[in-house]
Known about the structure:
Layout: E1 10-11, E2 15-18, H1 25-33, H2 46-63, E3 67-72, E4 78-85, E5 94-99, H3 108-122, E6 130-134, H4 138-146, E7 150-157, E8 161-167, H5 171-174
Antiparallel strand pairs: 1-2, 2-3, 3-4, 4-5, 6-8, 7-8
Helix pairs in contact: 1-2
Amino acid sequence: MSVTFSAPTLETARLILRAPELSDFDALAAFYASPRAAFVGGPQSRELSWRSLALEAGHWVLRGFGRWTLVEKASQAPVGIVGLWHPEGFPENELGWDLFDGATGKGYATAAAIAARAYAYDTLGWTTLTSLIAVGNDGSRRVAQRLGATYDSDFTHDRFGSMQLWRHPGPEALA
């Protein structure tokens, strides 16, 4: 038996943002097994990666929003996860991004985050968004800066440790 949930599909020029699917598991497990996942709880086993995929899908069910799987239009391959996030232990609604191996340096995180942020503001009616970025995660900090986010405060997460909270411009500032 499978439970279905509704997640809108968004598109950018080069990406499709769609609901997480079981077919994403191998790509997600490879990401979480790699050093690329060091700032988001990895490296981790396939078993824990399964739990991460279930967490991504379950967030949509429990909160009504979540993170999308990024699919590269040209190859139809999953290249990351980006979206809206507010699990227990996070101080506010967050916009987060994780790119799989080979997907960095192409503007994917920025383009997908712009689409997700627009959905948060235009569809969900949110007025603010944050991004929690682990200290030392310079790539994510640069994405946040490209999105116009500014450093707001320090935050200590129970599992991830020292983080910085970056505040995105609100919808009125982006208009």
